[in-house]
């Protein structure tokens, strides 16, 4: 443990240097060290680094100070976030033990924080009366098994992590906690928002959205800026969301039968707000507060109307007419992307990822150029890429488990991590150029681009989403003149034939 913390201290000191290249290399070493050590030592290292204000340093001096975060740094910040949130997995998968005195005390503290007066008044009651009063108070707290509330926390996930969140809320925001419980205690029984049950399900929702416990992808880059802006990130996020849940419950005038519906709306509120990429918890709080139940209904209605309009027969016919032209546009975009080129990592059987190589398509779309990438060059010109493949020699493209480098022995777990972003360009007889895309977006671009080169259909999800976006935008532009004018499902009837076709009129010289 001392060795790990010592290494972390040394690396942290180097991270403080202003040189960006040094910071990238130090972050790479730090992430590799955290991935290597065991769970207990990893927790100690994170505790030490956070005490040294590394989170604040990353947020201020890297995320907000760099002109642009490169792919490498974004990946390391993503992995660091995954590893930190992964420390919660143990609590998430641990059911409550009724024989554990500390866990029982946490439950009692929840009750005491919400109902201190009742406890004092009941101090001279009999044991039976006291048990009855406790059960009543646990029911007011929203526990389903109010006689044995620990049973509610046996569901894993979220397990004891839900109890941790409830305890954090009750101690960090005691007034908000008391207001939540007492406000619901005064409501009619069927309209009560159960705090404990809601907290357990909300914790599960947050774990799903934040992917707590999932292994970090070796090519992922989607980190939350908000994570580095806030200590105790998940607990603080829970405190905001549980109050939003209570507000949404009131707006929906929900009853116990509506519990699942409310949780679905809250999950949508959280997901939509995170989709706006909030940079701080306050920004998240502001945005999710404005995204109330009425706004959710309005957006759903808009999406439903757009969908209904898009499925009408005249619009479907117009879509068919527009689709070939837009597919040609997407095809050209993919080929331009290949001409720009992409950095790829060389990942060996020892899982080293420090070597990079570059591949790009020639401007005339006839040759693929590739070669090793030097440290000081981001996008090398074609002249610096020593190797090449003629497009006319390419036979087909393989993806996923069909790729040769995904079938290699002694790297089963590694292959699973890369499977979704692996592809191979096969040329000549038994020759293949193997790739692992740095991101799902790059994977889609290259698969589409290679299929476009081979005059095949572009199969990726990205193509479908881009085509839908372009079609919907073009349709909206073309239908602007018909706004508020109902478009019939059937075309107007063809008028009857004229009595004669003598449309010719002879002009006289005077008329002319």
From TrEMBL:
Family annotation (InterPro entries): ELMO_ARM, ELMO_dom, ELMO_domain-containing, PH-like_dom_sf, PH_domain
GO biological process assignments: actin filament organization; cell motility
ELMO domain residues: 102-274
Coiled-coil zones: none
Function: Involved in cytoskeletal rearrangements required for phagocytosis of apoptotic cells and cell motility. Acts in association with DOCK1 and CRK. Was initially proposed to be required in complex with DOCK1 to activate Rac Rho small GTPases. May enhance the guanine nucleotide exchange factor (GEF) activity of DOCK1.
Protein known as: ELMO domain-containing protein
Lineage: Eukaryota, Metazoa, Chordata, Craniata, Vertebrata
């Amino acid at each position: 443990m001392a060795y790990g913390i010592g290494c972390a201290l040394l690396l942290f000191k180097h991270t403080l240097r202003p040189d960006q290249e040094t910071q990238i290399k130090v972050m790479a070493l730090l992430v590799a060290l955290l991935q290597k050590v065991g769970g207990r030592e990893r927790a100690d290292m994170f505790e030490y680094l956070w005490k040294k204000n590394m989170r604040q340093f990353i947020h201020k001096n890297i995320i907000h100070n760099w002109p642009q975060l490169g792919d490498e740094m974004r990946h390391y910040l993503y992995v660091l976030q995954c590893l930190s949130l992964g420390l919660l997995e143990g609590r998430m998968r641990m059911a409550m033990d009724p024989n554990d005195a500390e866990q029982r005390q946490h439950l009692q503290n929840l009750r005491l924080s919400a109902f201190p007066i009742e406890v004092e008044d009941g101090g001279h009651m009999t044991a039976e009366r006291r048990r009855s009063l406790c059960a009543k108070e646990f029911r007011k707290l929203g526990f389903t098994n109010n006689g044995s509330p620990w049973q509610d926390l046996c569901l894993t996930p979220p397990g004891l992590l839900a109890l941790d969140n409830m305890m954090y809320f009750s101690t960090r925001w005691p007034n908000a906690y008391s207001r939540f419980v007492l406000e619901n205690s005064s409501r009619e029984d069927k309209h009560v928002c159960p705090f404990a049950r809601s907290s357990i399900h909300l914790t599960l929702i947050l774990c799903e959205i934040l992917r707590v416990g999932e292994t970090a992808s070796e090519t992922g880059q989607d980190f939350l800026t908000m994570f580095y802006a806030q200590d105790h990130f998940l607990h603080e996020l829970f405190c905001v969301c549980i109050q939003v849940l209570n507000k949404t419950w009131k707006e929906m005038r929900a009853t116990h039968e509506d519990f699942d519906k409310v949780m679905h709306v809250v999950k949508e509120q959280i997901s939509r707000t995170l989709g706006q990429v909030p940079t701080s918890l306050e920004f998240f709080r502001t945005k999710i507060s404005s995204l109330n139940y009425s706004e959710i209904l309005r957006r759903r209605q808009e999406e439903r109307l757009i969908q209904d309009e898009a499925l009408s027969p005249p619009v479907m016919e117009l879509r068919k007419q527009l689709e070939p032209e837009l597919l040609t546009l997407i095809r050209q975009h993919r080929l331009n992307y290949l001409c720009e080129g992409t950095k790829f990592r060389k990942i060996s059987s020892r899982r080293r990822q420090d070597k990079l190589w570059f591949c790009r398509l020639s401007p005339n779309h006839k040759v693929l150029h590739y070669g090793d990438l030097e440290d000081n060059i981001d996008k090398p010109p074609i002249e610096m890429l020593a190797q090449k493949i003629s497009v006319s020699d390419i036979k087909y493209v393989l993806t996923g488990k069909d790729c040769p480098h995904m079938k290699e022995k002694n790297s089963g777990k590694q292959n699973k991590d890369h499977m979704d972003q692996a592809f191979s360009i096969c040329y000549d007889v038994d020759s293949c150029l193997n790739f692992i895309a740095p991101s799902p977006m790059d994977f889609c671009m290259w698969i589409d681009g290679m299929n476009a080169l081979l005059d095949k259909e572009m199969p990726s999800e990205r193509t479908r989403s881009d085509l839908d976006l372009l079609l919907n935008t073009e349709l909206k532009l073309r239908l602007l003149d018909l706004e508020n004018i109902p478009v019939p499902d059937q075309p107007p009837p063809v008028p009857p034939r004229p009595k004669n076709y003598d449309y010719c009129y002879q002009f006289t010289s005077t008329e002319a």
